[in-house]
Amino acid sequence: MERNALPAGGRILLTGVAGQVGWELLETLKPLGEVIAPARAELDLANAASVRQTIRAVRPRWIVNPGAYTAVDKAESEPELAYAINAEAVGMIGQEARAIGAGVIHFSTDYVFDGSGGAPYRETDITRPVSVYGASKLAGETALAESGAGQIVFRTSWVYGPRGRNFLLTIMKLSRERERLRVVADQYGAPTWSRDLAKMTAEVIGQCEADARGLELATLLADLGGIYHAAGAGETTWHGFAAEAVRLQKEREPNARFAQIEPITTAEYPTPAKRPANSRMDCSRLMERFGWKMMDWRDSLRAVLAEL
Question: I want to staple 295 with a disulfide (CB 3.0 to 4.6 A). Which of 246, 263, 265, 300 is the partner?
């Protein structure tokens, strides 16, 4: 058995394959073993029966769950659906995983914090979500922990990549269509490349398999598992992210016209859901336990722009 491979016959069940992280995970997990990645029509996280039936049919060694309700503002008017996908389904995944001895990798968010802190958040800091989305994701973390399954939760932030719907792609589109773009400059965090997140996940699973040496995953994850922060290195604001993206693209297309990126305050851009002012995350635990350092957001931005 290769160091990064699952035991013979081991399967990975991957949710949310149509999403940014799920799409990247589909490729990065393949070298580990067979990946079963049902489409939403086959595995609907809002449908309890669908979740349980799929897991029982596949009987995976790992369940990797990037699938989520991510419409932050819409969640304020659809709390039941947000909780069904982000909390109830996660609890069911944990229950089914415990029954078959599977390990669970789940993705959460900086939105579990209120953003009032002045330093990067550590895993042990008090959670206090200020939106339905954040509260539903925190409820998912709790439900998974209470299920008793062997599990690792990766809290991340500001996820983006070259496909799907995300802040970078919106900015790059609008910057070609408008003369000015006003972007919030008082919310701090770090953009996280979906591919870097996927590569890190594959590395962690590989390390767990190497360390298991015949142990049950639940036994191993009782020590190695829990919550890890996994966001891009460095820090910026949404305005800083947008301005740097446009600056870099101007270097690539010196004759093209792009919008001026102007800073505004959160108060000048009201949204249904409140956003954390501070989304910075301390990822030192990930480095200490698994030796993985997330890419600096500037480096990942250059890599993503090169693919557009």
Answer: 300
